[in-house]
Design goal:
Rossmann fold; 2 domains; eight-stranded mixed β-sheet
Amino acid sequence: MKVLFVSNDPNIFVATSEVRARMRAYATALGELHIVSPAKSGAREEQEGNLYLHPVHTLRLFRMGVMNMKSHTLILEHAIEVVSAQDPFEQGLVALRAIRGTNAKLHVQVHTDFLSPWFVKAGNWRSPQVRMPLLNRWRRRIADRVLPEAQGIRVVSERIRASLVERYGTQIVDPSVIPVAVDATVPEPSLLPARPFTFSLIAVGRIEPEKRIEDILAALTLLADKYPMVGLIVVGEGRERHKLEGIVRARGLTDKVQFLGNRSDARGLMASAQAFIQASAYEGYGRTLVEAALAKVPIITTDVGIVGEVFRGYEEVLAVPVADPTALSLAVVGLIEDTAVRQELPLRAEAVARAHLAAVGDVPTRVVEDLARILSPLS
């Protein structure tokens, strides 16, 4: 089968990256895989076995047009059978336009819970206001146009599937639920950096608005007087880092928060923390929840992604509402004050995570089967 992925991940062009490894697995299972994606300067056209990489170098303003033309050309030149967009937004629109006048089928992957009210909502009276990208409203409208045209749809959680079915009904094909691939290997713990606090919360991921790290900082402020031993370590990079560092200074939390940037040993650092904390507004899946569970660290999370589907609140994780710093702070207190909870939750979460990954099976093979189903005469 000949497939084209329309992506938005420049790390595909980094030979040692995790996403490149996943693309190799997809290419092996498919037979021939082409990928079009924006790329950093220096990336070039590349072939690795049956994996073909096609970088796009252009200003953001012209990116969709260039990707559309390149994708259309590749479909015709290589007799591409299926074009899979990695999101139903910009990439979905590129893929939809690219297949016009060809025999290629459209497949759309949905990794984001874009129908969550928090996809566009800034906050509430209990929380800081976090400005969400104005593009998100436009992206919803694009998804409304793209998804009904797709011959196949893959989602990464039952939460997303339910939201799509509720919104679109019979306008769309029945989405296939294929979770994200997570490496079940647990790395060795990594030492946390020197810090003036002893109860370390760790947040891991992109520092973007939807992660609502502001809510964690607000929770720390609530805890500061009675629980001065609590601090936060943030692993990751993103557009919000500078703003958040300013909030840390304004709240007087400079001795309680450390930003480590991107770390290759992020999963090892998780295992050395006293708790993993996530305050996301929405998640499509929640890979770091599974990684934290495998690291046997207690988990505090908002009710997003696979919470409720894989991890149950107050059974394997402490789950709280989105945009509720008070609830986050109470969950932290619960872990500090209740030794049994702090010890038992991680054991249950790890068992559930391993059972989940075993049930998920081989993700590349399942995605290939989902793509092949589009070409079946019975589909």
